[in-house]
């Protein structure tokens, strides 16, 4: 609840989500760009947009479309309208995920309290996970990441040419490792600075990785198994199964 003694805000505070959806999905195999492939008859991107809009805190969504296809993406999203309270913007993306997110951040409105970055390729993240990330940023953490413990043991290797067996050089202690998901949530100024500062190709494969390079603390909240990333063909089978179960049990559309 707002403090009645504090001056009225000129700009309403709101949370925004940037959804990078400009990837091709090479690991999924040839065909339509990954975010536009359907799950249960609905494009993966539409599921991802709905997952962000399901949070009552989210009032702005920026979708980052394949560079050659923002008009097609706009048409597709117009065919699957959201509740009136959510504003949806589509911008063209870039050649890498980092570039696409940077282009999405440039389209954010002023007055944002939290910015989420969420992969279109994680279409089934539950709203409780989204809200947990937002709550942790609102509680003062500049960077918040949903994460899960690993099921597999991980080996560090000395990379070799394809086809040559890779020598193992170490086994990191699994109990200290986490697999990170999205949406990742940030204080907007922190994330903008990270994207302005960290040069492409310096090895960060997620947005929190860029923020870490500024020396800003990143904290984890529990992720969710259904927030998995659709990366390879078997992931599509799993996503269809999760969707079918949701439709049968809780009326998910
Ligand atoms: N140039 C790029 C590359 C990726 N992404 C987005 O980043 C998210 C995570 O990337 P990933 O799952 O790796 O998607 P792709 O890059 O499409 O997959 P692949 O590496 O198999 O081609 C996806 O929602 C993807 O659309 C993006 O917006 N712009
Ligand atoms: C951001 C991310 O989903 C966190 O796990 C992941 O790093 C994206 O990696 P990708 O190689 O672009 O799939």
UniProtKB/TrEMBL annotation:
Site feature: Transition state stabilizer: 27, 34
Gene3D superfamilies xrefs: Spore Coat Polysaccharide Biosynthesis Protein SpsA, Chain A
Function noted in UniProt: Catalyzes the formation of 4-diphosphocytidyl-2-C-methyl-D-erythritol from CTP and 2-C-methyl-D-erythritol 4-phosphate (MEP).
Enzyme class, spelled out: transferase
PROSITE patterns: ISPD
EC number: 2.7.7.60
Gene, per the UniProt record: ispD
Protein name as annotated: 2-C-methyl-D-erythritol 4-phosphate cytidylyltransferase
Keyword annotations from UniProtKB, A to Z: Isoprene biosynthesis, Nucleotidyltransferase, Transferase
InterPro entries xrefs: IspD (IPR001228), IspD/TarI (IPR034683), IspD/TarI_cytidylyltransf_bact (IPR050088), ISPD_synthase_CS (IPR018294), Nucleotide-diphossugar_trans (IPR029044)
Superkingdom of origin: Bacteria
Catalytic activity, reaction form: 2-C-methyl-D-erythritol 4-phosphate + CTP + H(+) = 4-CDP-2-C-methyl-D-erythritol + diphosphate
CDD domains noted in UniProt: CDP-ME_synthetase (cd02516)
PANTHER family: 2-C-METHYL-D-ERYTHRITOL 4-PHOSPHATE CYTIDYLYLTRANSFERASE, CHLOROPLASTIC (PTHR32125:SF4)
Family: Belongs to the IspD/TarI cytidylyltransferase family. IspD subfamily.
Pathway(s) per entry: Isoprenoid biosynthesis; isopentenyl diphosphate biosynthesis via DXP pathway; isopentenyl diphosphate from 1-deoxy-D-xylulose 5-phosphate: step 2/6
Record site feature (Positions MEP for the nucleophilic attack), residues: 174, 229
Molecular function as annotated in GO: nucleotidyltransferase activity
């Amino acid at each position: 609840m707002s403090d009645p003694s504090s001056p009225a805000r000129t700009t309403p505070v709101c949370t925004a989500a940037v959804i990078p959806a400009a990837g091709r999905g090479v690991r999924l195999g040839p065909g339509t760009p990954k975010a536009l492939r359907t799950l249960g008859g609905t494009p993966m991107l539409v599921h991802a947009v709905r997952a962000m809009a399901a949070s009552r805190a989210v009032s702005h969504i920026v979708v980052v479309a394949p560079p050659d296809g923002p008009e097609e993406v706009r048409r597709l999203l117009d065919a699957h309208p959201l509740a009136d309270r959510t504003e949806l913007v589509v911008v063209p993306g870039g050649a890498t995920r980092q570039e696409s997110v940077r282009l999405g951040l440039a389209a954010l409105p002023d007055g944002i309290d939290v910015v989420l970055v969420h992969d279109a390729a994680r279409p089934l993240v539950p709203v409780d996970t989204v809200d947990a990330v937002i709550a942790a940023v609102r509680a003062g953490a500049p960077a918040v990441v949903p994460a899960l413990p690993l099921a597999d043991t991980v080996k560090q290797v000395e990379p070799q040419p394809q086809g040559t067996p890779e020598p193992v050089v170490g086994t990191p202690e699994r109990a200290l490792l986490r697999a990170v998901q999205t949406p990742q949530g940030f204080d907007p100024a922190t994330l903008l600075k990270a994207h302005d500062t960290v040069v492409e190709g310096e090895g960060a494969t997620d947005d929190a990785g860029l923020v870490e390079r500024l020396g800003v603390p990143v904290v984890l909240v529990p992720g969710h198994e259904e927030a998995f990333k659709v990366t390879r063909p078997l992931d599509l089978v799993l996503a269809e199964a999760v969707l079918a179960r949701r439709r049968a049990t809780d009326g998910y559309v």
